[in-house]
Structure formats: C-alpha cells, structure tokens
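Reopening: Biopolymer transporter ExbB still failing for me.
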Amino acid sequence: MSFMQEMDSLNTVQQQAIELATTEESLNMIQMLMKGGWIMIPITFLLFLALVIFFERYITIRKATKSDTGLMSHVKSNVMSGRLDAAISACRSSNSALGRMLQKGLSRVGRPIKDIEGAIENAGKLEVSKLEKNINILGIIAGIAPMMGFVGTIFGVIQIFREVEIAGGIDIGTVSGGLYVKMIASASGLTVGILAYIGYHALNMMVERLILRMETEAVEFIDLLDEPGA
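Support: Ran it again with your exact input. Result attached.
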C-alpha cells in the first residue's frame, strides 16, 4: 500500500470516528434531557409553541413592512391629480396594513378632516392589534417556562430525600447524581424562558418601528388632504 493510500485510509477512519462521536454526543444530550422527568414534556411543548409563534409573527411583520414600499408616493400622486379611485385601487392592491389604513381615509374624502383622522386612527389600531396577535403569549411563556423548570427540580429533590429517608442513610454519590439530573429541568426551563423573552421583545421592536412608520405616513396623508386645492 502506498503512502497516499495509507493517508486516505487514516483520514477515513478519523472522519468515521468524528461522526460516531457526534452521534453519541447527540444521543447523550437527548437522553440527558429525558432524565429531567415528566416536567420536560410541558417545557418542550412551550419551546415548540414559542418557536411557532415567533417565526409566524416575524414573517407576518416582515411582509407587512415590505409590502407597502412606495405606496405613499403612488397615493400622493393620484390624490394630487384628483384620481381618488386610482389611489384607492393602489391601496387595495398593496394588501398591507398601511394600504388598508390609507384606503379607509380615502373613502372618507369630502368629509371634515377630523372624521378622516378618526377613521385612519381606528383603522390603524385594528391593524396594530392584528400585528400584535399572539405576541403576548411569548411573554407568558417567558414567565412560565422557568417556573416549570424550578417545579420539576423541586419535585426531583423531594423524591431524592424521600429515597434517602427510606434507605436510612445518605449516599453522597446518589444525592449529587440525582440533583445533577433534576437540575436539567431548571436549565431547560430557563433556556426556553430566555428564548421566549428575546423573541417577545424582538417582535415588539419590529411592531413599534412599523407603527412609527404608519403614523408618519398617516400624518403626511392628512397634511396632503389639508393642502389647499387637494
């Protein structure tokens, strides 16, 4: 066998060893999490729920942010030209929060400015409530998940000391090993809580930026209608 062939064989063996070690490590992690007890079931469910809500809201808010790009300029040009139907059509075709808000204002053109402002404000509140849908659940998960982890750990500690009482003596190895296993529940609950907390505030920041943009566009729209000759 040549030197190059020997090196290839060695590299293959090393690669297989790395893959085997990685697989074993993954299995050990899963097995360790399963040792956290029955409390790991609701904690896992909370993690799944938090991920679903975060990604669904993230995609929705990002879509709402991108879909109204350039809408205000189209509406402004049509209003200045006296083509309200074209402006309403542009708002309707945008299918965005800003578009629906401006469409509500355009449908009130001809009425007092206060009425138009009220219609836009009400439409804006409705759109914001749609964007914020289910975000508060992330805040609830951020508070509940760590408490569930602590509950699991406390029940585990109670079980350990009950076994110690039955055995009639303290085995340091058994106690420390049991505590190590039961602390998995606390660590898992804290991890899920932190992730949900980060997701909750990240989504709220996105919504706040979108609200600021909508308010700016609404003020510009009202100023446009309030201009002489509009």
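The helical segments are 3-34, 40-66, 71-80, 84-94, 97-106, 113-131, 135-167, 172-226. If you still see a failure, please send the error message rather than a screenshot.
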